[in-house]
Design brief:
Layout (H helix, E strand, L loop, with lengths): L2 H4 L8 H7 L3 H24 L6 H18 L4 H12 L4 H31 L1
Helix pairs in contact: 3-4, 3-6, 4-5, 5-6
Length: 124
């Protein structure tokens, strides 16, 4: 299976990583691996804020995620940027939790999708 056939998705926008790394399987594997290892624990931390909002955790994680979500084509980039500002301003916990409830499923779906892509690249 060719890299181009693996780099297809209805979940994430792969245009950025295709334009930068489409011909470099090893770099794609490394990039996706780093995305998964860096993002997974941060999403778990965000999930904890669904119960008890930690404004600094939410703000710092959203700030971190903005850069990787842009490159990785995650569809909730704008929402994450907005949530960072809301957490910085210590908006009500209800508003933060509502935003997290919208963002977290998209993040988790992207993690599953990239894990599938990574598995295919590794056997290529």
């Amino acid at each position: 299976m060719e890299i181009e056939k693996i780099l297809t998705s209805n979940v994430v926008d792969l245009s950025s990583i295709k334009s930068f790394f489409a011909n470099d399987k090893d770099m794609l594997i490394q990039l996706i691996g780093v995305y998964l290892s860096d993002t997974t624990p941060r999403i778990e931390t965000l999930e904890a804020s669904l119960l008890d909002v930690n404004y600094e955790d939410v703000r710092s994680i959203c700030h971190f995620l903005k850069s990787s979500f842009g490159l990785m084509g995650i569809s909730c980039l704008e929402e994450v940027a907005n949530l960072e500002l809301l957490a910085k301003d210590q908006e009500s916990p209800e508003v933060i939790k509502e935003k997290l409830n919208n963002i977290i499923p998209v993040c988790k779906e992207s993690l599953v999708e990239y894990k599938l892509i990574l598995d295919k690249l590794e056997v290529l």
